[in-house]
Amino acid sequence: KTNPKGFPAYVIIIQSEVTPTFSMASLELSEETNGIPPEIPLISSKSAEDGNQVPSQGSGGACVGAARASEPSMPAYYFVKWITWKEKKTAIITQSENGPCPLIAIMNILLLRWKVKLPAQTEVVTTEELMAHLGECVLSIKPRERAEGMELNFQQNMSDAMAVLPKLSTGLDVNVRFTGVSDFEYTPECIVFDLLDIPLYHGWLVDPQSPEVVSAVGKLSYNQLVEKIIEFKHSTDTSQVSEGLIAEQFLESTATQLSYHGLCELNTTAKEGELSGFFRNNHFSTMIKHKGHLYLLVTDQGFLQEESVVWESLHNVEGDGNFCDSDFRLCHPSQKPTGASQPSAQQQQQMQIDQDYLVAMSLQQQQGDAPGPMSDLELARQLQQEEYQQPQTQQHQPSAGQVLPVFPSEGNSCA
């Protein structure tokens, strides 16, 4: 067809394949299974994209791994935030609640490395544009070794990576191992990180000072551990039942998918100034180590207009870090939630702990000395221990909003 001005008009039909997504598997067994473990899905970062037209500001920045399918939708747009990174104006991609966090995390690393550059004054970018930039980066990679066997392997990896790229806009299936911060069960999706030389970390580790837990978890991946718990809980062998309960307790106590031992290992393993991917709570983030401290890039769309809010410190397992600017100086967002009520006693106590951390970190920055790799973590542990020693928290009563993984007893039906 042609419109009144003589320009051709086209109708494009877009078909969207809808794939259900899952977060941590429940350990429930229905009566119909007769004790046979159900299929256990991978821990997934897949987010049900809203297919948002231009998304509204103020949305949360988490990538949800809920068991939910999206409706067919129009291509998504994402707001671009401009920051001053190492004295250069640099773009980063922000995300709404259900943005494609693997794609955004990888693209932000490439943007901060200046491997990808967006035109000045760019305010929004589409998924297709991000995928095009990423595809160009992958195709520009050259093999490091010219040996015939290595080159054939490289070509196969390139082919696999190009096949995986479309999945980055919906999520990746990853299966962590609890033995090391860079230990994941190998999947084809990992090839993209390898080819782009992007380290991928997690902090969900077993404390080696807990031999019973080490024995119960072993070198299993998350999926294997879930299957073991289901099997051992219904065993007639009391020792297996006990081991299954220990493994179950480990998952419950590390429901944030980050342990203090994992945090220590992250700080030790990550290299100074290294940009990497960080997987936690079914979400991919961009992480960097600066002067012995770990920081996560703030991509929450709600901070789009907060130019000074660039990084958030990663110093405890609760995920309540402190905001910093692009030079890692502490800052406070000017935006405040509307209608906020007075903080509770527990919130005031946490605010005091955070303030103690701010003071200690400010003193280190004023002295100009890079702290030892473990000093920040030791401080966080000490502050956290002081918090737990307060009378208000000795009863170990869960808060109203606290949600832990459900591990029902035998005979309960699946939700």
Automatic annotation (TrEMBL):
The processes (GO biological process) annotated in the record are:
protein K48-linked deubiquitination; proteolysis
Q: Record's superkingdom? A: Eukaryota
Top enzyme class of this protein? hydrolase
Tell me which EC number(s) this protein carries. Answer: 3.4.19.12
Q: Which residue intervals are annotated with compositional bias (Low complexity) in the record?
A: 380-397
**What reaction is this protein's catalytic activity?**
Thiol-dependent hydrolysis of ester, thioester, amide, peptide and isopeptide bonds formed by the C-terminal Gly of ubiquitin (a 76-residue protein attached to proteins as an intracellular targeting signal)
InterPro entries in UniProt:
MINDY (IPR007518), MINDY_domain (IPR033979)
| Main function | Hydrolase that can specifically remove 'Lys-48'-linked conjugated ubiquitin from proteins. Has exodeubiquitinase activity and has a preference for long polyubiquitin chains. May play a regulatory role at the level of protein turnover.
Q: Write down what this protein is called.
A: Ubiquitin carboxyl-terminal hydrolase
Origin species: Cyprinus carpio carpio
What lineage is this protein's organism placed in?
A: Eukaryota, Metazoa, Chordata, Craniata, Vertebrata
